[in-house]
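Task: complex structure prediction.
Instruction: return structure tokens for all chains below.
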Amino acid sequence: GQNIDQPTEMTATEGAIVQINCTYQTSGFNGLFWYQQHAGEAPTFLSYNVLDGLEEKGRFSSFLSRSKGYSYLLLKELQMKDSASYLCALFRGYALNFGKGTSLLVTP
Amino acid sequence: DTEVTQTPKHLVMGMTNKKSLKCEQHMGHRAMYWYKQKAKKPPELMFVYSYEKLSINESVPSRFSPECPNSSLLNLHLHALQPEDSALYLCASSQSGDHTDTQYFGPGTRLTVL
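Output:
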């Protein structure tokens, strides 16, 4: 994860929208994944980008710009259960290379 | 069904013990992975099996020995571990290992080495 940067922590209010950014310093990857991980649980798949642009899946959307080395995960209509760690991961060659994750706290 | 199961959920072992972690999936996936995750760190890849053959070993010490008895099962044999090996061990699987395939993770085995 040394080439993938995410903010360590974020706080947002229930019902709001939050954007979690991910920047990376490599050009050689096949796709970019976003996973959600609750404390002590397995990562669960949220979204995936191969091409530049926006991918929307319900309350979650992910954006990729390869030229800018940048992705973000957008969470809408935040719920308390969205409090978790959000992991940005690059698929390179054969497996996922994870960033350090962003710990999101949703407050009432 | 997108379930990957892992047993045991928790394991405590001494440095001289031999134990095994087990992972199972029935989604017909042909790629399976072992990741290690330390507290407050992201998962780190250990091994990749593709079509029941070990395709990637990320320079993991030999005290960790993976085994893929068939396309649904993945084991991780542990021997002479160190306390620093204490971590959450995650198994994952994907359709064929291609970059377009989503990796599905099991709940993990939380390992403590005394």
